[in-house]
Amino acid sequence: MTRVTFEQLFSVIERALRCAGLTPDDAALCARIHAESTRDGVNSHGLDRIPRLVDYLARGWVDPQGLLEPVQALGALEVYDGNQGLGVRHALQATERAIALAREHGMGLVAVRNTTHWMRGGTYGWHAVEQGMAAIMWTNTESCMPAWGASSESIGNNPLVMAVPGGRAPLVLDMAMSQFSYGRLGVLKERGEQLPVAGGFDEHGQLTRDPGVIQATRRILPTGYWKGSGLAILLDAMAALLSQGRATHEIDGVERGSGTGSSQVFLVFDPQQLGGLDACHAMVDDMTAHLSQATPDESGRAVRWPGASTFHRRHDTADIEVNPDIWEAVQRLAGPGDV
């Protein structure tokens, strides 16, 4: 792995995206989000996604001119059409609008249809808790995972984000409905590492920890087996219902690359109106204190809870590890200097 500073990472990504046709504001926004995801250890949805995003922009699968267009307003619930625009920009704007609705009504729900990949969903959960808000957010995707009992791809892995602010540190869950995302499989394959637990099936229908084999069969394992499969299906249905957009099987019919044409939901709650922010902070702090006192298992590692590793990474001043091949590829996309 190659080590770079945050500033180097941001600068190269920003130049690459400006070369790809984004406005300076959009390039800076997306560069910050991708750089932060990489810093937080989610390279698969940070730096590693830049070549694909540039390709999608060139193909017209992501329209940088596509803006959020109001469809319907029902008090605390609003629906927007994304017009195949930048998924990161749309998701941040939807989060901000849901926060504004929550400050007014106690809760706010913004649903977006016809949008594109939001990259790391946890970005928007962190954005909410940093403003003292709790959140539940999810997206559907094209078919990329077999439903339980199937061998062919028939459901999305439909990432889910949940976040609650704390005094010392928040709780932030960011998970796909597959045991491992395809991005994580790619990272581990590049490193020559096996998965810590079975993550999918081989060509004989047997569970395997080999990420390359799972990439080849496309038979990733739903989290919790049939339970993850069922939750993925219902997240898909609710996203399509609330946004009045496409469900997974309809996204498949207009395939324009991973994550395009998706339906997303941004549900935000204001703790200040639900017992007070101080009470929310105390509750979360008590929970994490309780968890930290649990007896560690045989691995000897500290007990984990959602968001802990990301929180600690954000306070680490060390340089960021990146894949050298991808780093070189993005540098080539960025050109020799200023755009």
UniProtKB/TrEMBL annotation:
The alphabetical list of record keywords is:
Oxidoreductase
Question: What top-level branch of life does the organism fall under?
Answer: Bacteria
Protein's name according to its UniProt entry = 2,3-diketo-L-gulonate reductase
> Which species is listed as the source?
Kushneria pakistanensis
